[in-house]
Automatic annotation (TrEMBL):
InterPro entries in the cross-refs: BCAA_transport, Leu-bd, Leu_Ile_Val-bd, Peripla_BP_I
Highest taxon of source: Bacteria
Signal peptide span: 1-24
UniProt family annotation: Belongs to the leucine-binding protein family.
Pfam families: Peripla_BP_6 (PF13458)
Gene3D superfamilies documented for this protein: 3.40.50.2300
Gene Ontology process terms (BP): amino acid transport
Name recorded for this polypeptide: ABC transporter substrate-binding protein
CDD domains hit by this protein: PBP1_ABC_RPA1789-like
Ranges where the Leucine-binding protein domain occurs: 27-360
Source organism of this protein record: Noviherbaspirillum sedimenti
Keyword Transport on entry: yes
Amino acid sequence: MKSFTKFKLIAAALGMALSAGAFAQNIKIGAILSVTGPAAFLGTPEQQTLQLYVEKINSEGGLLGRKLELVSYDDASEANKSNSFTKRLIEEDKVDVLIGGTTTGNTMAAVPLAERAGVPFISLAAGIAIVEPVKKWVFKTPHSDRQVVERVLRDMQKRGFKKIALLSETSGFGQSGHKEVLALAPTLGMEVVVVETYGPKDTDMTAQLTKIKGNPAVQSVFVFGLGQGPAIVSKNMAQLGMKTPHYESHGVASEQFIKLAGPSAEGIRLPATALLVPEKLPAGDIQKKVVTDYTKAFNDRYKVDPSAFGGNAHDGIMLYVDAVKRANSTDKEKVRAALESTRKFVGTNGVVNMSATDHSGLDLSGLRMLEIRNNDWTLIND
C-alpha cells in the first residue's frame, strides 16, 4: 500500500511538472512573408518588425508570462510557396497564430488552410477579398484597396478631375485595385476614359502611356501597382513629357519608391498612413505617439525609418497581443473572438474597430493624402 501511495505521489508530481512545462511553452507566432522576390521591399520590413517586437515583448516579460517564438518562412513572393509554408506552420510547427501574407495573392493561397484548421490569421495585405466576404478566422491590418481608391478619387474630385486614365498591374493587387476603380468612379460622377495594364516584370510602359497621352480628355492618371513598376511608369511619363497629374496607390508608400523614381516622383500624390509623416502630425493627433514610438524603435534597431508595410506587421502582432491579453488565453477560439471584438485599438494604420461583419475595422480617417515634394513626403491638409 505504501509503495502504491508513493507511486501515486510520484505520478502526481510528474504530472504537475509536465503540466507546468506545458504551460511554460512558448507562444508560437507563425509568419509567411515575402522577404525575397518582387515583393521583398514589402516583406523585409515586415520580417524585421515582427522580430523586433517579439524580442521587445520577451524582454518585458513575455505575454501572459510566456515567451513569444517567431517561426517565419520566406515565400519568395510566390503564392504556391505561401500555401505550402502555411501548411507546415499549422501541421508541423503547431503555431498559435498566423501573421503574414505579404501580398493579396499569397494571403489568399493561405486562407483556406487557416480556415480549415481554425487558426487565427492576421493578413498584412490589402485586397478586399481577404475579408469580404467575412471569413471566421481571417483578419487584416492595412486599409482595403476599395478605401484607398475612394480616398484617391475624392482628392481628384476636389481638384476638379472628372476624367481619368487607369494604369494597373496585372498582379492580384493590381487587378483588385483595377476592379475597385472601375466600380467606384461612376458612383462619384467620374469617368475612366482610358484603361491600360502592365505586367509585374515589365520594364517599359511607354506604349501604354503613349495611348494615355494621346487622349486629350484625360485630366489625371491613377497607377495601381507594387514594386518597381510604378517607378518605371513615373520615369516613362517624364521621358514622354507628360504633365498630367499623377496619383499612386498605397502600394508605393515607402521611401524606396522615391529613390527608385527619382526626380520624376515630384508632385505625385498617394494615400498613406500616418507612419510616413510622424513628425508632421499635429500634437493632438491620436496616432502620433504610436507611429512615433514605432519609428524610433525601428530606427534604433535597423538605422532606417520603417515603411508603411512594416507598420502593417506592427499592427498585426500588437493586435494579437491585445487580443490574447483581453482573452487572458492563447486558446485559438477565444483569441479569434477577442480579435473580432477589438475596439478603439490605435495602430499605425488608424483606429481599429472590428465586428462580426468587419474583420479590418478601419475607416478613411487613417488614410492621409501625401504629395512628394523635393524627395520627401508632404502632408496635404484637406
